[in-house]
Amino acid sequence: MTEKLLIVEDEMIVATDLRMLLERNKYSVTGIARSYEKAVELIEKEKPDMVLLDIFLTGKLTGIDLAKRLKEENIGFIYLSANANEEVLSAAKKTEPYGFIVKPFREKDLLVTLEIARYRHENSMESFYKKEEDLQLQLEKIFSENSNWEQTLLKTGIALQTYISFDFMSAGFFDMSPESLNNRSFLRVGFNEYQSIGMKELLTISGVTVDELISMISKEDKETSSSIYNNEFFERDTKQSTLKKLFADTFKMESLLTLPVQVPGRPVFNFYFFSRRPDAYNSHHIHLLNHLRYTLTKLIEKVTENKNTDKANININNKPGQTDEINCFEKIIGKSHLLLNVFDEVMQVAPMDTSVLIQGESGTGKESIADAIHNCSLRKSNSFIKINCATLPSALIESELFGHEKGAFTGALEKRIGKFEQAHDGTIFLDEIGEMSLDMQVKLLRVLQEHEIERIGGKAPIKINVRIVAATNRNLEKEVAEGRFRLDLYYRLNVFPITLPALRDRKEDIPLLTVHFINHFNRKAGKKITGVSSKVYQLLLNYTWPGNIRELQHLIERSVLMTKGNIIEEISIPDIFRTSITNSHKENQLKSIHENEKEYILSILKKSNGKIWGNGGAADLLKIPPTTLASKMKKLGIKKDFNN
Fold first, then answer.
1. Which segments within 165-209 are labelled E, that is strand?
2. Angle 591-595-596 from CA coordinates, rounded to 5°
């Protein structure tokens, strides 16, 4: 069947040339649109399989606005655009396109990008249906169990967690009915660890009175459909709803997904999923919940008919139908919401054979996440082969990966089985993939496309069944733009990207990591160190950790070896940082961590003249994503016009 494409491009000469190119390569072009409105009209007339989309269009609405609508209608799209600034590119990237081509482009680049986009879109659809199938099975299992109200709600939340990540869930009848007294909330405090919160606990934690809470519930708007509240929409909605604002302020939440369930003969039952990320939810979550609405309605109907609402001890150690998930992360230390989001992504992709690209700065723990992906997969009983592409000489990497026959080259005294053959039916981890030469990238791409390798000196290809997990600390999009990494390989690997947060963005995990490393090196050195001094603790929390977890590990190891007593009183933080922190501490010893962080960000903003994005901007100087900086500024009350 011929693939149907829609071209959305405001330059008619470019659009016409593009149409001729596509039709010459056996694609069917359903039309050309210069504006958002015309594109919508053509889509309604004949739904395309894929859209080639320029960012800047005729009229007020842009290609990015259209991309959001395409995602809702589950239509794949590729951006076709001239060079844009970093802020625009960042906004475009958030819409999750299946490809990005910068004009002018070669015919070959476009055709390869279309092929990869089709592959990624099909994989995305397969992933969606797999999620729905898995969740249906888990919810049906919960339905068949004879659990009480609280247990059922928690098990339902845990089943949904992997696919609809939340840090706080509240569920119940948010009205003045007697059933609303049984509303329950669950605060996520670790992987598969939740604090159960009823009305009594909520009153204690929030500090509001019973009358105030009842008033909030009575004023709560009745939700009629699933809704997403991210960024400014979240702020606007929580201002209008005092109950949602109570949840948001008490538990420090920044986005919300709602699901109303109409139970026959009863008030509307609501699920509220809150996240600490400002843009956690999208239309895919809405589609998934709507597909599950019938099953959830039957589940809630059953449990509300059950008179057994007595509280019971809740000890949920694993998700329904699964027995050993939690062991996948036993070697990864931390409970911050950013790390827990990564765990959720791992649990989504692990059961599939999808290629995974793990991105993050050096020392953030990319290899540990690769371990977790393999250990949570159906391949866990088979080989897991690791290879660091940066440490292999270019002359040896092909032999290392694909093997060679005896006599294939000088020094090949015997046959060698390569890493890919060793990983057959298992997983191969290609660390530092960004260091691989262009020649080897071509050969790796062939493996991904053909599922076969050929030994050096071999006479025939060898079929292999290998799952590829790759990792890099480089910005591969920049590497592609500068010609050091192949565009087609990037999109083949980037089917399911996982980005690890830097340690400076999850400082709440530093105490847990510090205790872990102290205990580890105590055992190795035969010491009995029990902790760190308050001065050292403050240094650890205020340091920016350019080397991330690996740097913390090395500093703790050195400190354990150098410490003579039971408490670490000194730590070898770089002198420049130590001096700045000491001076700041002398100026105001009562400043909190947040106050110090606010002052530091303000100083960087002054240095960048208020510029946040792009080269020389505050985010660039801080070595953090602009979205992370914007989120921090919002939390710390720093306005864009920071001089005021």
1. 168-172, 184-190, 193-197
2. 85
